[in-house]
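Supplementary Methods, section 5.1.

A reviewer requested that the exact input to the structure prediction be made available. We therefore reproduce it here, unchanged from the version used in the analyses.
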Amino acid sequence: MLRMAFPVTDSPRRDLYPDIEPFAAGRMATESVHEIYFEECGNPNGRPVLVLHGGPGGACNPGMRRYFDPALYRIILFDQRGCGQSRPNALLEDNTTWTLIEDIERLRERCGVDKWVVFGGSWGSTLSMAYAITHPERVMALVLRGIFLLTQKELHWFYQEGASMIFPDAWERFVAPIPEAERGDLMGAYYKRLTGADRQAQLDCAVAWSSWEGETVSVQGPDARPDKFAEPEFALAFARIECWYFMNRGFFPEDGWILKNIDRIRHIPTWIAQGRFDVVTPIDGAWRLHRAWPEAKLDIVGDAGHASSEPGIIDSLIRATDWAARL
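The structure derived from this sequence is encoded token-by-token as follows.
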């Protein structure tokens, strides 16, 4: 059995690297109407790392540049279809897991990269693994956070029953836009409104959907919700794209597709950072992945939830990227 060498440390928790600015940025055409915003930071001659944001529809932010030593890494980020600085905003047409994987390959070729480290959290972990399964020869290492296998079980937990019992106050706000008669299928009810013609209902539902996730990402609860989750422009793309992907079960051929294809990526050195008290993507998914893939390191952070900004998650991810830089 393949074994990876992972660092063991009792040293104080690591913090983010300093703020940096891109040395290059632009938009990349696709085969469709979508134009993809991308940027590069750090050392142009460093080890290439691709950063995959969450959501789907979450977009990149400057803080994502800070998980990597800028002297060692060439940090490549992009906003996935329909969100952030990519255009058109909130568009669902030609927006699937497989078109995103095509965009990743198109960006890799444009940047002249042969193989890269792939870094992703939450939905970013889903897309990272799907990309690696599809193109294992292009991935030198994976750094994953908040494992999301995008199974029916996980979607039911967060959008129908489960997380509702841990955050009942936030849940009341989430279900408020939906009439009681439609609450037996909340994703379906939200999808109808997020893709409907009533603009005000669309915006109200987008903010409610987005805020539900924002209020549950941290062990500190709703008061720690990042401001962006209640901003209508961010929320509209985030909610529409997430709901579109989840209604289509991630566009995977079958439930549990990632676990069923782990043998294709078993050889790739991998670090998984998982909050013990993650309610958005519960530790059960990371544990099932670990049982199927014991060669990957599972670092369970005992005092963290889902957010990448929690101190224990930051520490694990910084140690992970330092490790991947030395492979």
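Strands lie at 24-29, 35-42, 47-52, 73-78, 116-121, 139-145, 270-275, 297-301. These observations are discussed further in the main text.
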